[in-house]
Amino acid sequence: MSAPGASAPVPPVGAGPRPEFPALPAPSRWRYKPRRALWESKAVRAGALVLLLALCGLVILAMVREQTGTAGFLVGLGLAVVPVPLLIAVFRWMDRVEPKPRRNLVFAFAWGACAATLVAILANGFATEWLMNTIDVAGDADERSWGATFVAPVVEESAKAAAVLLLFFFRRRDFNTVVDGVVFAGITATGFAFTENILYLGTAFATDQSIGHKGLGMMTAGTFVVRVVVSPFAHPLFTSMTGIGLGIAAGLPPRRRRVVRVLIPVAGLLTAMVLHGIWNGSATLHPLGFLAVYAFFMVPIFGVLTWLTVWSRQDELRTVGAFLPYYQAAGWLTPPEPLALSSMRARGIARDLARRRGGPAAARAVSEYISFATSLAFLRQRAHRGAAAPDFSAREQELLHHLWERRGAAQPALAGAVTPPVRVGAGAVPGWGGPTAPGAPPVAGAGWGAPPVPGTPPGAGPVPGPGTYGPGAPGSGYAPGSGYGPGYAPGPGYGQYGRPSPQGQGNPVPGTGEMPPGNGGR
Fold it and tell me: How many CA atoms lie within 13 A of 483 on its CB side?
């Protein structure tokens, strides 16, 4: 015990307690898991949904097999599956910027293949019969024509739109842009077209067999060419109109009138019905008329949709590049990351670098890091537009937590993806933060390391991190004057989440004194 009046011993430098990060909760509270009622349980909902779709699938299987026979069903199944991998690959390519959870895509396909098809088969028959009893028609041919042109589009597009609407309401976190709407709608329509093609191709095969053809006769071959070769994108094209409407509505701020946010999806659904009706009606025309509708109406619309989707995909990358610099200024991301994450090429390079250095596990960590960072950018964009959800702060902290856990593998790989390879000396590591002297021992923590605490000078230590993350990672290694250090206030989202600071106010880009690019959002 010290003598009275003696001075207290001075603790050694660096022995004091680590600074706290008051905006972040303890690790046990990172996950946002509110208490839910029984029906709100994910397991209960998933079980009920799987049971419903399985029952619909069994019913539709029995109905198709009864109409086509076993041989017709197997032939139709084999031919109908041909375009499915191509269509799924196209929509997965559209979805590469912010990949959606596979369970959402599986649900969309299963709904289209099972539930929507069953509803369409049953409702089309009842609606066509009611229409024929109301309107005087000349014969069976006119009855089929009226049903295909005026009944089927309304019934089928409504049944397919139900899946996209369910995802819009119950998976709102994953439904942010026009691309999301097109992807969900396209996958749903692909499932619907798959089952419908089994029915049509199986029926055509049964017809060929009934008139004495062996193998694939003219009826089967013609149906295959029209439905699989010429128009595999027909159903996805129609339903994408509904997806575009819901995607636009998803980006509208709550302050917009509710009627506007309702009318836009309704307009998309009506457009899908009209396009579907025109396409079905063209099948009753002379072959030249059908080809004219196909060449001068459907193909241009498909081209416009393709252009819109590609533009929207690039716009998503611009959003990532515009909103991630806020987190870089706050110390959560290293300077190369916003640039690397806003480029699909750099993302691919980062995954390859991680795979070469750390194997599949490192590549998977980089992929997850990219996905979480992209979600973080869109979360900030929604707050900027005034459309932040009530759980904004919890969701933001959850995403930051996931980034922090994967930073060791992801940050050096992303830095290497946008850093030219350095080939000076034997110790140079291409694209991984610069050379080392020949024969020199490896530097501890090589790479970008952990960013410094916002508001502290360079070299003051790593971000203390959410909760306790062990002894701490090496510092960033930036020299004084690099601009990555003093003068940064707490990062966006701590306290009042709101919208990012307008241009000229708030956190500057490190080392420049200027605001991050793209403050205006979209």
Answer: 12
